[in-house]
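pasting for the record
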Amino acid sequence: MLILDDSSGGHSARLDMLEQRMIDMKVERWSGADLLQDHDRVVVEEALEICLVYGAVDQRTRKTVTVTMRTPGNDLELAVGFLFAEGLVRCPEDVQSLQHCGLPAGPLGLQNVVRVELRPEATIDPALLERNFMSTSSCGLCGKASLDALPALPRTGLSDGLVVEAAVIQDLSSRLRHAQAVFDATGGLHAAALFDRRGELHDVKEDVGRHNAIDKLVGRQFLDGSVPLSDRMLLVSGRVGYELVQKAFAAGIPFLAAVGAPSSLAVDLARAANLTLVGFVKERRFNIYAASQRISHNAGVCEPSYPRGSHEHSR
C-alpha cells in the first residue's frame, strides 16, 4: 500500500500546513467612531473532490464519489475517513494508493482532488456508490439523494468495556481548546479530538466542517490500523447531528462528547447503538443523553447540568 502523507514532516512542514489553512485578507474595522483599514486572518475553505478507482486489473473504474467543502490539510485522511464511514473501504489493505491530483487552484494554488485507488481484489457494494452527494461545510448529509441513502440503524450495540470518570469528562473541552492552533488564529474552525479514558489527548484535527474533522481524525487512525477505536472518546466542538454519531459508531468509538447540543435523531441513534452521548461539556458540567453506564461518578462530582430553557448557544 502506498501512502502519500500530506501531514507529516518537520517543524517547517507543520508551519507550511498551518499557513495553507489560513489566508490574510483586507478588512475594515469599526472601532468606536472610526473606520480603520486593516488585515485579518481568515480560515481557508475550498472544495475537495474525492475520486475512487476500483475494479479488476483489466476493468478499472474511476468515479467521483463526493465533493466536500473543507479546510485544506489532512486531505488524504479526510478522503479515506469519508470512504470508511460510507462503507466503501473496509480495511487499510484495501487501499493501494492515495494521492493529490488535479491542477493547482484557488489563491494558495492547492490540488483539490484526492484519488483513492483500491487494490483489484477489493470488493465494493454497487449500491453504496449510488450515494453520490455534495457535502457542505456545515452538514455532510444535506445533499443525500434520498432518504434511502441514510445508513441503517445498527443491529448490535457497542460493548460497555470503556468506563470514564466524570471528572475527566469535565476537563475535555479545555484540553481541546488548547490544542486548536488554527482556531486560535482565525476563530473559524471546528475540531474533533480523540482522548483515552484518562483524558489524555491522542490526536486532534480541525476543519470548517465538523464532519470533515471527524473524517480526518478517523482516517488517520484507519490508515494506522487502529480502528475500531473501542478504547477512545471522541470530543467535537459545536453541535452533534445524526451523521456525527454515525461516523463515531462506524469507527467503533463508544463515547461521543460535544461542546454543544445534540439533535433528537443523534440521540435516537446513540441509544440504538449503545453509544454514550454527552452534550454541553463545560467546566464541571455536562448532560448525558445516552448510555450513561460508561460514566463513573466515583471521582469528581458534576454540578447540575443546564436547566431547560437556559442552554448556551453552541458554535
